[in-house]
Structure formats: structure tokens, C-alpha cells
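ingest -> validate -> predict -> emit
validate: passed (alphabet ok, no gaps, 208 aa)
predict: started
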Amino acid sequence: MFGGSFNPIHFGHLLVADEVCEALCLDRLLLVPAAQPPHKPAAELAPAAHRYRMTALAVREHPRFEVSDVEVRRSGPSYTVDTLTALQERGRLHLVIGSETFLDLLNWREPRRVAALARLVVIPRNGMGFDPETPAALKVMRELGLPGFVPAADLPDDPAPILLHAASLPISGSDLRRRAREGRSLAFRMPEAVVSYIRDQQLYRPEA
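emit:
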């Protein structure tokens, strides 16, 4: 499971998702747009239905990508623990998160249950170092009751979180929203179908 606001989805998200699929030999990677991210101001978000449709457009040609509306359909804040609980029947779960998100996990709802429901796959952010031996990282591991990080090549039954250095692109959602607001080019930053959708729906424009 790879969750996020996807506001909007772009090639940076898709490249990381593809690398995770390949490195872990996953049967399926589920992208889950958050309807109401608990830690993001709602005013900055395009409506959840639009973000879901953009994500669906972006992943439609990848054989192992799938988009889920599990959080879009659920009322209230989009807590990951609720989503993982709802997805248990899909099989063994991995949760893909960035290294900054990992360091903030103790502020999530029921973080120990999150770690019990899915094996964590932590992706260091582009251009930023991540040392799993820092006091902050070790505190998260200790509080969640997890052993140390292992490389992606380790056996899938190992409960330890995976540290995966995936290729990433220096694309930011805030820059894309600003470009859309100013009527500037979005080309080569996201799939053309998503660019067309943003233009057609006039998303991120002042009057939107």
C-alpha cells in the first residue's frame, strides 16, 4: 500500500512505486488517495474525488498498479490504521512511507497496530540522508517493538522494516499546484492524462 494525498499525483510518486514493485517483487501495489489527511490543511487539497480520478488515470497502464477508493468512500479523517484493517483480506501487506513520515509515526493513530498490520518499507527522501541509527529513528523502532532495518533482498516473512533506496525525482506537489494556478506548463512532470484532467477541471486555479 502506497498512500498519500496525491495532490496531484506525478512522476515522482510513480517512479518510487515502480521501484518498490520491482525491488520487493510485489504482485500488486495499491495506491490509496487520502480523502482527509489528518496532518494536512483541507484548504490546500483538491476534492478527494478529483484526486482519486487523477490517480486512476496515472496508473491505468501499469500492470501491477491499482488505485483504491477505500479512504475516499470512508467518512472522517483518513487514518492509515483503519485502511490497513480494511485491506487485511488482500493478503500480506507492506506499507510504503518516506523516511520523514517514519520519524513521525509515533504521532499517528495506533502506530503499533499499523506496524503489526503491515511490514514497513521506508524510502529515504531524495537529496536527504537518513540514518536508521539516530536516536530519533531508534526511538520509533523501540516504541513500535520492531527489530532493526533490513535491506529489500531479505526474506518477505521477516517482520523487520525494509530500508529501500529508491530512485526519485525532484518534483513537488506545491510547485505543480502553483504552476497550474498560474497556467504554466505541467508537461514531463506527470502523465499527460493527468495534465489534461487538471486543465479540463480547472483544478488548483484561484476560482476552483
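The two ends are 30 Å apart (CA to CA).
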